[in-house]
Write a structure and sequence with these properties.
Length: 433
Amino acid sequence: MPHLPTADPYLPGHGDPSYAVRHYDLDLVYVPDGNRLNGTAVLDLVVREQTARLVLDLAHLRATKLRLDGARVKKWSARGHRLVLQLDRTVAAGTALQLTVVYGGSPKPVIDKHHGDAGWEELEDGVIVAAQPHGAPTWFPCNDRPDDKATYRLTLAAPAGYTVVANGNLVAHQRRASVESWTWVMDRPMATYLATVQIGRYTTTQHDPRTRTIGPPDADLDGSFDQQPAMLAFFERVFGPYPFDAYAAVVTDDDLEIPLESQGLSTFGRNFCSSDWSHVRLIAHELAHQWYGNAVTLRQWQDIWLHEGFACYAEWLWSQESGGPRTCEEWARHHHERLADLDQDLLLANPGPELMFDDRVYKRGALTLHALRVAVGDDAFFAVLREWAAARAGESVTTGDFLGFASAHTGADVAALLRPWLYDTALPPYPAG
């Protein structure tokens, strides 16, 4: 059988580089009783490399009908977690196509030996979708690679009484008999792993015009999620304008081990309704990802430090700004000392799939930024962060892109400065000024 494509070596069996998706239109119906999802997905595609085959990612769900406008499908089949479309002829690069897929089944997470489970997950009463890095195919057919960004329109119908939250702006909400439908639009480019839907018996607390928390009616937000307006205001000062229209924190009634950001919103368990710094820091962390990770997104997973190092550094900045347990400098020294006692086998710029979410990526990534800050000074450093977020918003980037950008904007040889942090396994000395 012909070999199926892989777009990113960190996620074998995901993604097809031969085409890009420009827009996803998803029309879904979910029945919690029995965990049943049925949907129609319309994908606007552009061929990037001439091809006679299109491969989509779809896991645990069965496609029942397919239609392709702009070319003809000779045959199609499901192979594992992929849909393979054989065309009747080779189509040229630049060809626009529209693919409609009707599908359904009982969604469940994808399990990977390196990354664990991700995707559509049932709660005690509701659903979360935590797709990073490989869970998007558990709920819609897609080209699952981080460098393929598209806009989205999602309509999901669920039993009355459930709130449906997704990326972007709510543009329609209707109730008919015992069913409510919710339509959300994300009009900024978004990677598949950042697309999400959250379903629960929730109410909305509007903190200010741009920040809200959506969760159980009895959730206590004092000292935790009510800090989000202040966090957003501070991050706008240091990172530049917030890159989306609004921001939501979804708090599930269940406890969750870790939170996760999606584009324009993040998901937390009820256990994060706490003023303890160990929880508040992660509220700041996920918000910071809206600039670094969501607006500006890695092209390949090996550059995950461009997300996690930046968001971790944002924690340290917020700690200092809010009178938290340590200043930014104190956090940097603290974590440098801790890293020095750990194994020196991590290559930050290419940690490998088994270590891409290792805590050392987060802390060493933050220290890499601190080293840049010490070397070029606060004014130049924060100017780089603001200009990087603004200039590359909506794009997919690499470590090399950031090094070149920072060098051009500071006049320093940032590639040489940061090479030991990024490309050596041994931990460099603490970056003292």
